[in-house]
Design brief:
InterPro entries: Cell_Wall_Dynamics_Protein, DUF1058, SH3-like_bac-type. The chain has about 140 residues and is mainly beta. It has one helix spanning about 1-5, and strands at about 5-10, 15, 20-25, 35-40, 45-50, 55, 65, 70, 75-80, 85, 95-100, 105-110, 115-120, 125-130, 135. The strands form 4 sheets. Strands 1, 2, 5, 6, 7 and 8 form a 6-stranded antiparallel beta sheet that branches. A 5-stranded antiparallel beta sheet has the order 14-13-12-9-15, with no helix packed on it. The protein has a two-stranded antiparallel sheet with strand order 3-4.
């Protein structure tokens, strides 16, 4: 009867971690093994829900459970390429402001079909090509 316990998540729903040092667990309870510790804003795709827990997967396909109260619907993304140019506008003709590294997390500010405007930890914004990021879902 596992089907009755797990409610499927809506298509491509993403959440982000609220706070620092949030545990990704092997099962939906506080006694289960801690698989990873996640930082603020870390994006996760929701796979299922069970009570006050959500089953999630990250950009490297690591799966686990997180308490729903430790997540937010505020959109974040993570760089999935070795490097990503952060540009002054949404296109390759715009100036490169800096390079972001694999695994760097950004707050999503705005979206177009091909570009995402992001805000980094330093509060500065820029644009990254959508294909270099994970966690942004569909437009």
């Amino acid at each position: 009867m596992m089907f009755a316990l797990l409610a499927p998540a809506s298509a491509q729903q993403f959440v982000s971690i609220k706070g620092e040092g949030v545990n990704l667990r092997a099962a939906p309870n506080l006694r289960s093994e801690v698989l990873w510790e996640l930082g603020s804003g870390y994006p996760l795709k929701v796979l299922a829900r069970r009570g006050s827990w959500v089953q999630v997967v990250d950009f490297e396909n690591d799966r686990g459970w997180v308490s729903r109260r430790l997540t937010s619907s505020r959109p974040h993304s993570i760089v999935k390429a070795p490097r990503a140019n952060v540009r002054s506008g949404p296109g390759t003709k715009y100036r490169v402001l800096r390079q972001a590294q694999y695994g760097e997390v950004f707050r999503v500010v705005e979206r177009t079909a091909s570009w995402i405007r992001v805000r980094g930890e330093d509060a500065r914004t820029g644009w990254i090509a959508r294909g270099l990021l994970w966690g942004v879902g569909r437009k």
